[in-house]
Amino acid sequence: MTTFADITGRLEKLAIEVPSWAYGNSGTRFKVFGSPGTPRTVKEKIADAAAVHRFTGLAPSVALHIPWDLVDDYAALATYAGDHGVRLGTVNSNTFQDDDYKLGSLTNADPAVRRKAVQHNLDCIEVMNATGSRDLKIWLADGTNYPGQADIRTRQDWLAEGLAEIYAQLSDDQRLVLEYKFFEPAFYHTDVPDWGTSYVHCAALGDRAVVCLDTGHHAPGTNIEFIVAQLVRLGKLGSFDFNSRFYADDDLIVGAADPFQLFRIMVEVIRGGAYDGPTPAALMLDQCHNIEKKIPGQLRSVLNVQEMVARALLLDVDALAQAQQAGDVLAANQIYMDAFYTDVRRDLAGFREERGLPADPMAAYLASGYQEQIEADRVGGTQAGWN
Ligand code: AFD
Ligand code: MN
């Protein structure tokens, strides 16, 4: 029987990377709602991300998105982040908003556009060199909307060429993380639509090319934890983009739609040694807080991950293995569900207090006055968003 006291050492290792863009305005193609207190600058985004870490101890790094987070001096930005108790993390390239990329970026039929997309990623590597970031994350919106629109086979060759040129520019302690998504904004085919395609390109590139699994990027009903188990077994699960969805890439608060799925995913991460083993998968959030306040939305998210990780760590793996080996279907399922049904909220409150953190980070944040302060201070300027 695994008790909460048995898992605290492992639970302390939980580190979740928050996305800078979660603190800016975001929305859907129908409307992007502004809200008081939204950051106007990259530094204000980092200050808000640092608040999430301050109240929870769970979010020590902030992912950047280029050009949304363009600044003149990234070394100075890294120092600013450090002064606020966090560090700069993954650098996300963006080849999905420039008009030149309407018909694709790395897979565009025009070699000049492909060149531009490669160069943008090389520029992102320069940012990484300045910030000390390890991961370059590439998500391509590339694809087509109609059969016959493009040669889907040749696009794979162009993609491989571009990725190889980018990969060659990485230093030995940097990684290329290739994210897949089954549809949207392309609707007929996407050039990196699934884990297999990402894996094939990463395997061709080398050891420091790995897959990013965004939990919102699968068709409904996909067994995501199987993909996790497979990629971990192949040594190619680089990172997650955690969020939750009811229908598509909804980018909702992770765990909000299906905490059981998040639990099952973390069981496979832990079982495969990708949680606190030698090469852990990076646990990132990729969410948009369209109608809820952003900092509380991020607090809710990291706390949801912490709760499911705690439950997954409580899984009695020895008893489970015995029941599995014995073919005892119901016993194995019951052992699995016992861990999921374990309410760890009281234990987590004590865990936090023992580490000088508020027992209830959300309540502490709401009482702190930070939200009121930023809403009062951040008047004027242009609120940050997806641009
Ligand atoms: C969008 C994409 C993808 C990517 C993110 C940041 O769907 O998830 O990781 O933007 O670039 O959400
Ligand atoms: Mn993502």
Distance between the termini: 51 Å
Shape summary? globular
- Give the CATH level 1 class: Alpha Beta
CATH architecture annotation name: Alpha-Beta Barrel
| String of helices and strands | HEHEHEHEEHEEHEHEHEHHHHHH
Beta fraction: 5-15%
Uncertain runs are none
What is the count of helical runs?
A: 14
CATH topology: TIM Barrel
Number of DSSP E strands: 10
Class by helix and strand content?
A: alpha/beta
- Give the tally of structural domains: 1
Rg measurement, Å: 21 Å
CATH superfamily: Divalent-metal-dependent TIM barrel enzymes
For the biggest sheet, the summary is: 8 strands, parallel, barrel
Q: Quaternary arrangement of the chains shown? A: single chain
Q: Please, what is the average pLDDT?
A: 97
Largest sheet, order of strands side by side?
1-2-3-4-6-8-9-10
Helical proportion?
40-55%
The small molecules bound here are:
alpha-D-allopyranose, manganese (II) ion
Protein name: L-rhamnose isomerase
EC number: 5.3.1.14
Keywords: Isomerase, Manganese, Metal-binding
InterPro entries: L-rhamnose_isomerase, Rhamnose_iso-rel, Xyl_isomerase-like_sf
